[in-house]
Structures are given as C-alpha cells and as structure tokens.
Design a protein that fits this description.
Elements: H1 4-11, H2 13-24, H3 32-43, H4 49-74, H5 77-83, H6 89-103, H7 117-127, H8 132-171, H9 173-203, H10 208-216, E1 222-225, H11 229-234, E2 243-244, H12 247-251, E3 263-266
Parallel strand pairs: 1-2, 1-3
Helix pairs in contact: 1-3, 2-3, 2-4, 3-8, 4-7, 4-8, 5-7, 6-7
Length: 268
C-alpha cells in the first residue's frame, strides 16, 4: 500500500481506472488496495472523490458490458469456463444461478461484494437475455456501492490502514510464511476434496449413449433433472421422461428417490 501511494499521486485517476478494469475483466489483479489508497489520498485533497469514483465506475461498467456481450454470444458455456478457475468449480455455476433465480438482475447491486459472483454475474445476465440499458443501470449502481464502500473506508481510516500495513511489514517473513501456509493448505484441501468427489462420480457415471441403449431396450430408469430454473430457461429442453427436482429438496430430504429401480440424475 505504501508503494501505491506515490503511484496514485503521480498518475491518479487513470491508475484507479486501470486497476478496476483489469480486476473486473477477470485478471487476478486486486483493485481494493488502489481504492483504499485513493480514498485516503482524496481525504488529503490529492484529488476529489467524485472524479475517482466516476472513473472507477466507468471502468467496472466497461468490463461488465464486455462480459454481458460474451454471455449473450456464447451462452451458458462461458459460465463453466469461468468457474474452472474457482476453488469449487462444481458448485460455482449452481450458486450463481441460485442467486440470480432469487434476486434476478438486482443481484448485480451486491454481486461485487461476493467473491466470484461479480465476475460470473454479468455473463449470466447476458445469457439470460437481460437488456443493455437495464443491465447498465444495475451494474453501475452495484459498482458505485462497491467502489464507494472501499473508498469511504480509505477516506476515513487511511492512516489506520497504513499503520497496520507498516506493522505487518515489520514482522516480515513470519507473516508471509504464515499466510502462505494458510492459503496453500486451503487450496490443497479443496483440491483433494474435489478429486474424491470426481472419483465417486466416475464409479457411478453413465454416458448418454449407454442411457440411450437402456431406454431403447425397454429398461426405463428414473431420470431426474436437477437443473436450476435459470438453466432450464437458457436451455429449454431435457431428456424424455425426466422429472424435475430442486437440488435443495434432495439435500434437505424433502424428496425421497425410489430404492427399487435405477436412478439417473443430470444437472447440465
């Protein structure tokens, strides 16, 4: 944060614009430190909060509109590609679709405060056919809230944050090693958990061709469609004879599947 201050004093609004544009575009470049420092510098009169806020909101909206266009052109497939870099790719798309099913385009008002949702939300809105004007209104409003919150924190507690960073830098290697161990341990744990889950799927997996042969031979398993309402709307077709159920109903035991016949479930 100390190194950001002179850069922002020299390049000001343009640097904040670049940081926000790159982060919202999907690159692993955090914009929050720049927003905190920009808020602190605005408090000292280096530049007005309004011009920084306007530039940052514009950068966020440009990135979101690009994702909206990508979602409209590619459809739901782009969500899977984005979620592949998530620590929980198997539930990333479903969580995002659940949020949009519940709140609709209003989810953009708080999406940037939720890790992952801020990036996956705009292409999902594009795939769902949300109009550009309506999307821009909610996207810009959500960006205003997110950017304004971090700048306000930097504006009011700039010196406090700066002292905390200085204290951490004095501890040096110990803090870096501790943080690295925590992050690596968390990532490895998620990776192991996902590999176990994938192995369990391989044991009980059936291919579309195998299912087709079973149906043609008269062996009719119970086919369960677990896709979300958003997913069904985006791809309004399914397997013949399938019944639609919500994942939450199964997870919470509100629905029981028969144990005297084979059950085939699909969710994408």
């Amino acid at each position: 944060m100390d190194s950001l201050a002179p850069l922002l004093q020299q390049h000001g609004v343009a640097l904040v614009f670049v940081f926000v544009l790159l982060e919202q575009g999907g690159l692993p470049i955090p914009a929050v430190p720049a927003l905190l420092v920009a808020g602190a510098l605005a408090g000292k009169g280096a530049f007005t909060p309004a011009e920084v806020l306007a530039a940052a909101v514009a950068a966020s909206l440009i990135a979101d509109l690009a994702w909206l266009y990508a979602g409209a052109r590619v459809g739901r497939r782009i969500l899977g590609k984005i979620c592949r870099i998530s620590l929980e790719p198997d539930s990333c798309v479903r969580r995002t679709e659940d949020v949009f099913q519940r709140f609709g385009v209003r989810a953009l008002l708080f999406a940037k405060f939720v890790p992952g949702l801020g990036t996956v939300g705009p292409p999902l809105a594009g795939a769902a056919g949300v109009g550009v004007l309506r999307f821009s209104l909610y996207s810009a409003s959500g960006a205003f809230l997110w950017i304004g919150a971090w700048m306000t924190l930097g504006y009011g507690a700039g010196e406090t944050v700066k002292r905390a960073v200085a204290w951490a830098s004095q501890l040096g290697l110990a803090v870096a090693v501790a943080l690295a161990v925590i992050i690596v341990g968390y990532v490895v744990g998620k990776f192991v958990q996902r590999q176990r889950f994938l192995r369990s799927l391989r044991i009980a997996r059936i291919s579309p061709d195998e299912l087709g042969r079973q149906l043609a031979a008269g062996d009719k398993p119970l086919i369960v469609d677990l896709r979300s309402a958003v997913d069904v709307k985006l791809t309004p077709y399914g397997l013949p004879g399938a019944i639609r159920l919500a994942v939450d109903d199964l997870e919470q035991g509100r629905v029981e599947l028969p144990r005297d016949r084979d059950v085939v479930v699909y969710c994408s």
